[in-house]
């Protein structure tokens, strides 16, 4: 698969942003996080793992983007389609890009926005943000949700990348019997599953969660411990691996040896819930509709567990907007990529969680992950 | 090695924070990022990869920490030593923890700080931060650098974890000849090197950078491409792998087949620079002193490349304070863990970069990575 995107795709993204900025009277948008900067530039590097240096991208309303970045990033940024690249030698303990950024913004006009709503954060020190605001005509305000609006709907090229990530994970899930059986400690399974993901083509594996416990599990965000898998356990692995900058995010459950019939039944019911949501996934359906379609099946309409939601958007982040919760009335449109993630309680504190990835199409939805078999696969007990 | 830390270690960290808070007249500190929250709680999960939900930890000046977190994290947080855990069902589109956090902070007093200086950011939406400030007596101010002061100096238990991460990487580097030789594309090398890191015991591999080019390289933050290694290349791999929540961060250079003598000479000189910095690393030396000790050797005192620095702190983040730059006068004290990371230019745009990890001791320093051989190792050309 081709790496990155055509320049025309980035130009179209900028144009859509500018059209919305113009409607909201914004002179420019300031971006500071990895996915937001990459969305418009294609700037892909794991160097963001280092929190020492801020990075800025400015989208003016009526000209091309301006990168205001540490000089260490100049060579790579120059390979992108961005031509206006302004650098400083970072880290600078007295002025870490702030005056360079202030000069840039002042030249563009008084109305600057930055992503400020749910799931956003400002990736720069608060003290520097205050200094920046103090040197502008007006303090920086909200981007009016423009970034969220844009990133919510994926292009065909983005969908291809997410599908590819899903396929890589699918091949790794198929090979779980090679690495997991009774007696193998969970932390070994985690390590080896990440190796399988890499072997099958993942660029890296930022996220792996899971659990293993008798007949179901209670917590899905704990790190792995050294307890060996044992007969009767359900093993769940949930991966967010990355291919060319895009995530998949789905899981699989496995029975170690034999599990009680009620565990198999719960699994089948949960898979039924993902199909029920898939069936109504089309333009016009809301995120809340999907929640209720699944909740009806997995918890008889009791509004699910305290974990909060039955799925979410997916793309350059592991989790994006919308949220499949009763209060999210986001209307689905073609190109939205979402996860269907119902959980089902078997007994107090013992549950199962399923997850699939789909994309909304003109007349329905398409599976990006190959949906799980209702019958849980078996590992050697 | 034992996972996590004794409760007494967390209690001591809180006590040190409270003593500094008391000096600065702070009633509480608000923390929002993964390493800051984990520093006081031990709360370790890869779930932070999801940017949807904010997480808050409050350190009051005169009582134990309070976790204000999404309910999905309650089970895992309850396994930590923290007993005051307040939860809300997140994401909540109208009040994502803000009023719960505001209630908590109001009960503690009017003077609240949060990390605001270099390398910090606030991991919550700006709009929510404004709402929070509006509901407090005073807006939240700076933490007066307290988090930076504390995290700058590692405990013996933290040093053990970093040393362990370094050893895992060392074993993976030793096995590079198994996966890299002329004809193997760089992206295959990246994938396989991550697999080696996992195989040798890494929990995960958040960071891998590197380069391969004839006789040296120009850029060290680009993702791998599909160009095969070829005779005369220098391959560099730089990894930040994690073991029990702590990073190593160092690199190794390899010659593919034969390289010109001047490349070997440059490598040897660069390694000499790391030893020169190591020799003067002891309490009382400054970060700037280390910069100059290396710069003298690798660039004849020309203040190095535009990349900016010759090393940095290391711990729960891949890069931490201080920075080895001419303007950072941080005085080294026992327990600081730093990287020594000189670069050397061979010809314009062609360079090599070395990196080692050390810890400052009472009477000098200790290598945490086993220092590289001045003679570059060879891969099959």
Secondary-structure topology with pairs:
2 copies of one chain form a homodimer.
Chain A: H1 7-24, E1 28-31, H2 34-41, E2 56-60, E3 66-70, H3 74-78, E4 84-88, H4 98-106, E5 112-114, H5 126-134, E6 141-142, H6 146-152, H7 156-174, H8 176-179, H9 186-199, E7 204-214, E8 233-243, E9 246-247, E10 250-256, H10 261-280, H11 287-298, E11 312-313, E12 320-323, E13 337-340, E14 343-347, E15 350-353, E16 356-361, E17 364-367, E18 378-379
Parallel strand pairs in A: 1-5, 3-4, 5-6, 10-18
Antiparallel strand pairs in A: 1-2, 2-3, 7-8, 8-9, 8-10, 11-12, 13-16, 14-15, 16-17
Helix pairs in contact in A: 4-5, 7-9, 10-11
Describe the protein in words.
2 copies of one chain form a homodimer. The first copy, chain A, is built from 11 helices and 18 strands. Chain A has 2 domains: about 5-150, Creatinase/prolidase N-terminal domain (Creatine Amidinohydrolase, Chain A, domain 1); about 155-380, Creatinase/methionine aminopeptidase superfamily (Creatine Amidinohydrolase, Alpha-Beta Complex), CATH 3.90.230. The longest helix of chain A has 20 residues, at about 260-280. In chain A, the strands form 5 sheets. In chain A, strands 4-3-2-1-5-6 form a 6-stranded mixed β-sheet. In chain A, strands 7, 8, 9, 10 and 18 form a 5-stranded mixed β-sheet that branches. The first copy, chain A, is of the alpha+beta class and about 375 residues long. At the A-B interface, helix 3, helix 9 and strand 7 of A face helix 3, helix 9 and strand 7 of B.
């Amino acid at each position: 698969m081709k790496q990155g995107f055509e320049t025309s795709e980035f130009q179209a993204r900028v144009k859509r942003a500018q059209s919305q900025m113009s409607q909201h009277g914004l002179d420019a948008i300031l971006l500071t996080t990895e996915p937001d900067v990459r969305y418009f530039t294609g700037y892909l590097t794991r160097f963001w793992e280092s929190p020492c240096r801020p990075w800025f991208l400015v989208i003016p309303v009526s000209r091309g983007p301006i990168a205001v970045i540490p000089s260490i990033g100049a060579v790579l940024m120059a390979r992108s389609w961005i031509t206006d690249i302004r650098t400083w030698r970072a880290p600078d303990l007295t002025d870490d890009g702030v005056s360079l950024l202030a000069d840039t913004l002042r030249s563009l006009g008084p109305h600057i926005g930055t992503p400020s709503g749910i799931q956003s954060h400002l990736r720069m020190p608060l003290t520097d943000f205050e200094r920046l605001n103090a040197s502008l005509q007006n303090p920086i305000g909200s981007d009016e949700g423009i970034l969220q609006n844009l990133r919510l709907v994926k292009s065909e090229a983005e969908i291809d990348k997410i599908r590819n990530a899903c396929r890589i994970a699918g091949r790794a899930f198929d090979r779980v019997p090679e690495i997991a059986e009774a007696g193998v400690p969970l932390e070994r399974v985690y390590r080896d599953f990440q190796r399988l993901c890499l072997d099958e083509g993942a660029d890296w594996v930022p996220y792996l969660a899971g659990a293993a416990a008798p007949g179901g599990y209670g917590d899905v965000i704990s790190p792995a411990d050294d307890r060996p898998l044992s007969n009767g356990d359900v093993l769940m692995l949930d991966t967010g691996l990355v291919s060319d900058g895009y995530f998949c995010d789905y899981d699989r459950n496995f029975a170690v040896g034999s599990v009680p019939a009620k565990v198999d039944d719960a699994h089948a019911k949960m898979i039924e819930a993902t199909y029920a949501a898939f069936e109504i996934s089309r333009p016009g359906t809301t995120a809340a509709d999907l929640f209720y379609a699944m909740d009806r099946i997995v918890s008889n309409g009791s509004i699910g567990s305290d974990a909060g939601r039955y799925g979410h958007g997916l793309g350059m982040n592991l989790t994006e907007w919308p949220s499949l919760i009763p209060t999210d009335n986001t209307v689905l449109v073609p190109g939205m990529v979402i996860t269907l993630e119902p959980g089902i309680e078997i007994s107090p504190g013992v549950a199962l969680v399923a997850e699939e990835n789909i994309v909304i199409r003109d007349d329905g939805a398409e599976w990006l992950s190959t949906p799980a078999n209702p019958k849980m696969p078996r590992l050697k007990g």
